[in-house]
Description:
Layout: E1 7-15, E2 23-28, E3 39-45, H1 52-64, E4 74-82, E5 88-96, E6 111-117, H2 128-138, E7 143-147
Parallel strand pairs: 1-5, 4-7
Antiparallel strand pairs: 1-3, 2-3, 2-6, 4-5
Amino acid sequence: MSHVHRSIGHVMVLLLHPADGRVLTVRHQPRSWHSPGLLTVVGGCLEAGEFFDEGAARELAEETGIVVSPEQLEFCQLVHLHAADGERVTGVVFLARQWEGEPYNREPDTHSELVWADPGSPPEDCHPFTREVLAHFAAGLRYANVVAPELKGAGEAP
């Protein structure tokens, strides 16, 4: 008998610092249900009726105050995540190379700070999914299958 898994669409934006290639991440508040105290990339779930690029532009504005049009976002990566709770997440990652203004934490109830991170050497306190997204970005990969660390076989590195 097969099990039905919930599948959701997730969008992410890598805001690329023009001077040094770091990308903007957000640190979740310690009380976060899925990423307590951990860094994640800017992003979230699609809302009803949104296309991926529209949702990504909305999430960027909601979380950082940076407004870009969907047309300014470059497709960067497609990620398929098998999460430990049975969810299957299709993540579409976009790159924002140009913008106006300074990013700031627009969701202080959700995030404690914004952190510029080196995608080739992400901080230790990145969420495992974020670590994978950044590693694939640094390697120039456009597609990745990601399995939650809890689902990997014994003896495998997370």
